[in-house]
Amino acid sequence: MVEDIFRRKADEQRWRAERRLPPGQALTQRFPVLHYGPVPRVDLSTWDFRIWGEVEQPLRFTWEEFNRLPHTRVTLDIHCVTRWSKLDTVWEGVSVRTLVDLGLLKLKPTARYVVQHAEYGFTANLPLEVVLAENFLLATHYNGEPLTPEHGFPLRGVVGAIPGREDLKVPYFWKGAKWLRGLEFLAEDRPGFWEQAGYHNEADVWKEQRYA
């Protein structure tokens, strides 16, 4: 046990030196379950995903239609505001950037922010530049398996760090909403659930922007 602790500390020093472990974070091999409220029960036969707001045309997808969209796989280091980090996690799902590039999603010039709408009225906000970046995904799978209910089945927003890509903004993991049901594109920013409760609006992991 003592050897495991020293090994983990050595790993943390190495990853911190390689700029993969942000300040104040500790490595974990587990995937902690953290959320507010109960885990929703999902009926995929009635489930839908909507996109609206500052878009040329609102969109709605059934679960079957959503899964026919082009899928992307990305490896991310994820960092929770509660101070755990998990490296080299693999996610699969739909990239918002891909939807825009293919012309499936047409944004108005006024679109600058995005609110993720999830079950029970939960929301999480992000700048458009983050949602369109390679390190944000509408994820259906984690490490090759469908999401579990506790981790957001059937769909969640995921944001993290792509190793070696220091050009990308990296918010804390709460900025990706579990049990996602829609994206609302906005001209002005609107704080999400945790931001309204006192968490930092930008949530940059490298600046330790945990609380407002």
TrEMBL record:
It holds the Pfam family Oxidored_molyb. Residues 37-194 form the Oxidoreductase molybdopterin-binding domain. SUPFAM superfamilies: Oxidoreductase molybdopterin-binding domain (SSF56524). CDD domains: arch_bact_SO_family_Moco. Coiled coil: none annotated. InterPro entries: OxRdtase_Mopterin-bd_dom, OxRdtase_Mopterin-bd_sf. This is Oxidoreductase.
